[in-house]
Structure formats: structure tokens, C-alpha cells
Amino acid sequence: MSRPPFCVPPTGVRAHRLATRRGEFAVLDAVPAGEPAGTVLLVPGYTGSKEDFIALLEPLAAAGYRAVAVDGRGQYETAGTPGRTAYGLGALAEDVLAQADALGAGPVHLVGHSLGGLISRGAVLRALAAGRPSPFASLTLIASGPGRVARRQRWRARALRLGLPVLGAGRVWQVCYRGVEPGDVGAFLHRRWLANVPDQLLATGRTLRYEPDRVARLAAAGLPVHVLSGERDGAWPVPLLDRMAHRLSARRTVIRGAEHSPNAERPVETATALLDFWTHTSPPATDRPAAAPRPPADGCASPAR
């Protein structure tokens, strides 16, 4: 579970619902003062939400990009759909394609964290398989690997599959997340956990356990790819991410001091790396970050509806 440093949208970031051909999705939308240099769509991971990217939005907008972070179907403030088939990887990838189209900005820079990286990759591949014009200018995979997660994480996803229907979300929180610190951010994490649709958690947990390696297909798509991670990662080992980046001929960035959620743990460094990647059409093999923007102030409140 990613822990955002704060959860009140900064000045200039608007919480609203994005209407698409596949329904409405709760978003945080940061718009730059002038004509956007580009548009960014940020897709969160398992048990996450749009707030996992909240500390990236202000620096990305300050650099001239419109940045839109989304709650996926059945995540936090986006309504769910009955049944688990609505949360298969293909269905969630179609949601991302619909979100990109609804932004009406031409090709967007797609950023997916963890499970969101698998979903984002699926969106790229579905557009390619259907012969559609690509709605994406680039793809950044943050702490997201070539296929299923590491063994320990598969065990955890399986334990949740067995325990959630029996114990319920409230009891699972007490058992698994009782160490979450009190305070505004802790209260937000608890509120978000309870708001997640159980079928979504069960179906996407299965994706994490069984998703195959699709790196060769992604490499054939010809899209510029950026593989970004922390120095340590329990979901996909960092050497595995290194090898995936090599197979993709991708830009590779390792954020010092970060683990599985550099977008939340080191947002300034992560924003700088993203901006540097988007600036270069043929990014070098190693990251050379520009001057880091200042992070926004801390704070938290009840989420906007």
C-alpha cells in the first residue's frame, strides 16, 4: 500500500469526475497556467488510488504538463461494477484507453505504478492489436515488472483472496494494517481501504499472481518506454526490472532512497526523472535529472466528492 505524503489537493489541482465512454472516473487534475506541453495520465496500483501521485501533480503542472491521476474502476472514489469480470486486465486496460480518449489531448504520456503498470501495458497492447492509432506518446512503468509479482507477494495476494470474503474489509485492516500510523494520512488510508470494491481487490490480486511476461510484445510496439523504480522493491526485484528495461531498450531510472513507491516516497526526484524522459525522444540509458522542483506543503482532509 502506497502512503502519499499528504492527501489534500494542492493549489491548482482540481478533484472531479472524468466522463468517458466507459463511465465516470474520479480524478485529480492539474492544469498548467499556459498551453500544456503535454498531457499525462497516471494509473495507480493495487490497493492504491489517484492520491498515490498527488505529490507529482504540482511539479508536473509547474513544468507545463497537464497531469491527471485517476482512481480505477472500483478503486476508492470510482464506482465499481458487479462481478469480477469487470476487473480483468483487459477490461481495466479498456478503461485506460477510454480515459486517454476522454482527455481530448492527442497522444498522452501514460504512467502506471505497480499493478497500474501492468494495466497500462495492457492498454498499449490492446490498441496495437486492434489496429487503433496509439493514444499514447510514451509509457513509464513505475515499480512494475514483466509479469507476475515475486513469490512472497503472490502469497499475500492469495491470503487476501481467502481472508477478505470471510473476515470483511474492516477486520482485514485490523489484522494486516494495524501498524499504520494515526493522523490524517493514516485516516485517509483506512478510508480508502474500506472504499475499495472487494471484487476489484480479488480480481486484480489474481492478475498480480498470474500475469505472464509480455515484454517482447511491448518492445515490438515501438513506444518510448521508461522503467523507473526505487533502490529496493519487494514486488519485483530491482535486477529483474533492470533486465526488463534492457529487453525494452528503455530509459532506466533508479530513485535513491525509494522502495516500491518512488512516486510517493521521493516525488520531487520522480517528477524530475519523468520530465527529463518526456523532454528527450531518444532517452539515454541512464537518467540525468534536471534541477528538482520544490515539493508542495503537507496536509490532509476528507476527499473531495
UniProtKB/TrEMBL annotation:
According to the record, the residues making up region (Disordered) are 279-305
Query: Per its UniProt entry, which superkingdom is the organism in?
Result: Bacteria
Q: Which InterPro entries match?
A: AB_hydrolase, AB_hydrolase_1, AB_hydrolase_fold
Alphabetically ordered keywords of this record: Hydrolase
Question: Pfam families, per this entry?
Answer: Abhydrolase_6 (PF12697)
Residues forming the AB hydrolase-1 domain are 40-272
Q: Does the keyword Glycosyltransferase apply?
A: no
GO terms of molecular function: hydrolase activity
- Its name, as the record gives it, is Alpha/beta hydrolase
Source organism of this protein record: Streptomyces johnsoniae
